[in-house]
Amino acid sequence: MHPIDRRQIQLMLLEILKDVDAFCRASGIRYSLAYGTLLGAVRHKGFIPWDDDIDLLMPRPDFERFLATYGKEPGARYQCLFNARGKKINFVNFFAKVHDTKTLSIESRMRKSHRFGLSIDLFPVDGKPDDRKALLRHEKRLGHCAHQILLKQRPFFPLSFHNPLPAMIEAHLHSLDGLLRRCMKLMKEYDFSTSRLCGSAPIGSNGLKEVYERELFEEYIELEFEGCRFLAFSRWDEYLRQQFGDYMQLPPENQRKSHGLTVYLLDEPMRMD
Question: Is residue 139 a contact partner of residue 198, using CB atoms and an 8 Å limit?
């Protein structure tokens, strides 16, 4: 195995994104750059310099089609992982990953059982309730459940500042399958196609940050990213302001953090057992 540096990681992530983009355009599947990736496209026309991941959002109908059809050809280098369990590849969460089977990616915060290649994240977009009280209750329950899935797959650190002990204990008292079933039920409770409000699952308590009008996820343009052009919400300014506030302002240097990935090139591709 051979380790690669951050810029090499970014360029390999870009290759995954280019493959996903080509597939989605050919298949009529909607997606948008999202979170820090969309911010990078607008503010830097590429990666945020200290970033080492790529995030996409997909409406639930498109997300399900993508899971069923992408990377299925024999020997495909880039493959989609969702509830993937095996001795060599293991990834379980409410969202999906497209990973490079010729790499191994290790994130210091996750357990060793969390095993896959360098990857980009695909988050499904689902409907949300219209009533404000029901919406607040739904987002609180969904955010808590999504956070529990994350904590369940991290080592148990009783003195963690970011993950209080009661939350860590609660997560480790439940099975991962049980948490995932609960999260998926909440996410799919409201249909994307018939809901006025839609969004992805919040992770933790962030109020209504993930709630938007459905039209946001139905109108797309192209934005430049690392010399290429990818799809993004036509109302990207609205999305970024809700996510980040004054998004053109750089954060303080002590807040410019990556995911702390260590990535290795493999001599042989990773395969599911």
Answer: no
Distance CA 189, CA 185 (A): 6
Q: Which structure tokens are listed for 154? A: 């991290």
- Closest by Cα among 205, 243, 245 to 38: 243
Q: What is the DSSP letter of 248?
A: T
Which contacts (CB < 8 Å, 24+ apart) does range 12-15 have? 12/100, 12/103, 12/118, 12/263, 13/52, 13/53, 13/54, 13/118, 13/120, 14/54, 14/225, 14/226, 14/228, 15/100
Task: Give the chain's largest Cα–Cα span.
Answer: 54
| Beta strands 96-100; 90-91: pairing state | unpaired
Instruction: Find all residues with CB under 8 Å of 21, minimum gap 6, and list them.
Output: 31, 228, 230, 231
Q: What's the rounded Cα separation, in Å, for the pair 79 and 23?
A: 12
* CA–CA distances in Å: residue 165 to residues 4, 67, 77, 170: 35, 35, 40, 9
Which residues have a Cβ under 8 Å from the Cβ of 181 and sit 6 or more positions away?
none
Question: Phi/psi at 44 (nearest 5 deg)?
Answer: -120, -5
Backbone angles phi, psi at 214, to 5 degrees: -60, -30
pLDDT value at residue 85: 87
Listed in sequence order, the residues at least 6 apart from 76 whose beta carbon sits closer than 8 Å to its beta carbon are: 101
Per residue in 123-149, pLDDT (tens digit) is 999 999 999 999 999 999 999 999 999
